[in-house]
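Translate structure to sequence.
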């Protein structure tokens, strides 16, 4: 098995196109990580460390995870990819509500380009707003000493430009590299905290706790791979037809409906959405907002319940955006395909929708359960899950998706791939 893995890696290096994509992706990631260590002008790093160690920085410590530690340094890429994800959530919700945007989404590639352009504009606006808010917040904790208007404007422009660059990096990886660029940048940000987690694992936990955590983490990884790879194959038969003097069609195939068709995006969306309330409370420190922030802090039960509900809702929403049963049924009917025992057209769409609804529910519950796992482990077993269920799910999901893209490139050129 190990020899086959190394052989597959060697085969990936032999294909010029795949090798260039891997090198391009690695180069973009290197630039991104470099930008996460370059602070904006006039930052007091010691004051920042005290802020993040205090209870006030709890919610921002969670956000710092998704920026790969850049927020804790107020680096050029401190905002990371989160403004783009928030803008994507808003645009997808507006696509359902506003008929004009819904019509654009159905126009194919050209309509999608227009929606992407709107998403970019909204990302820049959100990044600018967050940059201004962060300047005032860090200034209140003396992390930006001797701040004047000129330096404040410079910091805001730098952070906004950094977010725009990160958004561009993600799109470049998607277009010219390997994997989904946005997910891959989050993946890199999360695994950058792996050394600290490993150090804490060996220095602060007992042997029994370490063994328990390793067993749980292995079980989580196996479960994530199992659910992510699970699918229901709906058989499709194409009727025979005569074209000229030749008999065409008559083939059999299937429609793969995945248990977790939405991937890791519902968790990323739900986490971003739930961070809105504690973040606002940090910027408006009144008694009511502070109480609200405690209720919806990352380690509070209401936050856990709200995030779980949002994960289930976003899973159904993202699945509906990804797979449209009506369009699928129309395409089958257009090309002479049908599901055995089901009438073409509307009955086919209803059949696919029924299967998809039943499949999505266990996938959504699994996502919510994995996200809630660290809270239950800490509360009932006193086991600190340093890497987090959300982090493991994102890391494993993105790694599998990237491996599948490499697999497709290898199989296309008649090489043996990684996966069986």
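Result:
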């Amino acid at each position: 098995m190990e020899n086959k893995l190394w052989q597959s890696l060697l085969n990936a290096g032999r294909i010029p196109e795949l090798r260039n994509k891997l090198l391009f992706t690695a180069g973009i990631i290197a630039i991104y990580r470099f930008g996460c260590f370059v602070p904006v002008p006039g930052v007091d790093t010691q004051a920042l460390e005290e802020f993040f160690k205090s209870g006030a920085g709890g919610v921002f410590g969670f956000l710092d995870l998704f920026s790969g530690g850049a927020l804790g340094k107020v680096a050029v890429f401190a905002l990371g990819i989160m403004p783009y994800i928030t803008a994507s959530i808003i645009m997808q919700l507006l696509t359902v509500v506003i008929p004009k945007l819904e019509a654009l989404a159905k126009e194919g590639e050209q309509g999608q380009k227009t929606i992407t352009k709107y998403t970019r504009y909204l990302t820049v606006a959100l990044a600018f707003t967050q940059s201004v808010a962060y300047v005032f917040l860090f200034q209140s904790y003396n992390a930006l000493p001797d701040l004047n208007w000129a330096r404040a404007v410079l910091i805001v422009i730098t952070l906004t430009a950094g977010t725009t660059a990160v958004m561009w990096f993600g799109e470049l990886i998607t277009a010219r590299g390997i994997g989904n660029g946005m997910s891959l940048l989050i993946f890199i940000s999360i695994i950058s905290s792996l050394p600290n987690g490993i150090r804490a694992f060996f220095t602060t936990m007992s042997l029994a706790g370490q063994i328990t955590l390793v067993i749980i983490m292995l079980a989580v990884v196996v479960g994530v791979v199992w659910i992510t790879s699970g699918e229901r194959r709906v058989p499709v038969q194409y009727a025979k037809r005569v074209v000229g003097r030749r008999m065409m069609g008559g083939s059999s195939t299937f429609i793969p409906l995945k248990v977790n068709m939405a991937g890791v995006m519902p968790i990323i969306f739900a986490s971003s959405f739930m961070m809105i309330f504690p973040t606002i409370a940090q910027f408006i420190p009144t008694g009511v907002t502070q109480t609200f922030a405690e209720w919806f802090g990352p380690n509070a039960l209401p936050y856990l319940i709200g995030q779980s509900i949002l994960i289930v809702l976003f899973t159904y929403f993202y699945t509906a955006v990804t797979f449209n049963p009506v369009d699928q049924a129309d395409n089958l009917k257009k090309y002479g395909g049908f599901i055995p025992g089901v009438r073409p057209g509307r009955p086919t769409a209803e059949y696919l929708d029924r299967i998809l609804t039943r499949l999505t529910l266990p996938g959504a519950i699994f996502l919510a359960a994995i996200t809630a796992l660290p809270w239950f482990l800490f509360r009932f077993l006193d086991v600190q899950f340093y890497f987090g269920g959300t982090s493991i799910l994102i890391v494993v999901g993105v790694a599998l998706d990237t491996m599948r893209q490499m697999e497709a490139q290898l199989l296309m050129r008649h090489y043996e791939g990684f996966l069986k």
